[in-house]
Amino acid sequence: MFIQRGVGNMEAHLRNNRRSEVVILLVLIVSLAATLSPSSASPIAVATGEKVELSLYYEALCPYCEFFILNYLYKIFDNGLISIVDLKLSPYGNAKIRSNGTVVCQHGEWECVLNTVEACAIHAWPVVSDHFPFIYCVEGLTYEEKYDEWESCFAKLNLDPKPVTDCINSGYGHELALQYADEINALKPPHTYVPWVVVDGQPLYDDYPDFVSFICKAYKGSNVPQICLELSLPTTTPNYGAKPSNHVGYKEEDNAKSKSMLPEIVSAEAAESM
Ligand SMILES: *[C@@H]1O[C@H](CO)[C@@H](O)[C@H](O)[C@H]1NC(C)=O
Description:
50% of the residues lie in helices and 10% in strands. The protein is built from 13 helices and 8 strands. The protein has helices spanning 2-16, 18-33, 43-49, 63-71, 109-124, 128-143, 152-156, 162-169, 172-185, 211-218, 226-232, 246-256, 268-272; strands at 52-58, 85-91, 96-97, 103-104, 193-194, 196-199, 202-203, 264-265. The protein has a 4-stranded mixed beta sheet with strand order 2-1-6-7, sandwiched between helices. Strands 3-4 form a two-stranded antiparallel sheet. The structure holds 2-acetamido-2-deoxy-beta-D-glucopyranose (NAG).
């Protein structure tokens, strides 16, 4: 079971992350150099089991989701955290499937369209460092309410539109939406709003803006990125150990845009049970 999971992870890494090859090589070298751990499992299994799974369940046009992607999540590609993270994006959120199989979205038709666009982008470019810039671009446009300009992201990022437009026009995008629906609806514990951030299977609830420290805590490997070392240093900065102060700025800035202040709640009952 454990071995199968390790092999599965390894395959996913080889497929999904070019950097994993470098990481595996480094770990191999380090492991060969260190003769101190003769009883450890194979270096490759250790290396691939190390990454922390970060999943974001979100939907297009949800202000908190846009804000999280545009102001928090993108940083993991700049601060080195991505080297220890297996990031999975799930663009569906609180949409519902009608009895006739069509999808209804909280924010109307544009949300459904753009959820499908983003699902197709993930499908077209499965490596996260390839699809994330496109999704970041689309989310940036929707934040400015330029919903109909999403296709400008192809040229902006020098990407071929064909795999994404084919996915949408063939109806495969709709199939992907149904798959993402199954995925979010199978979550245990279930999601109660979006953005719903999950680290190694554990939802972060309202602490999601602090996801970096959860990832650093969950990471058991030896290639600790600088950002995690900085977080764990005894520090003289006054905010250490406090609730992330940026949460406040987050709300204020959303407020300034006079958009909804609330995460996208699934239902009033679900919200009360939290
Ligand atoms: C599905 O149902 C909705 C509302 O009940 C309706 O507006 C829509 O046209 C239907 N679509 C198809 C493809 O049957």
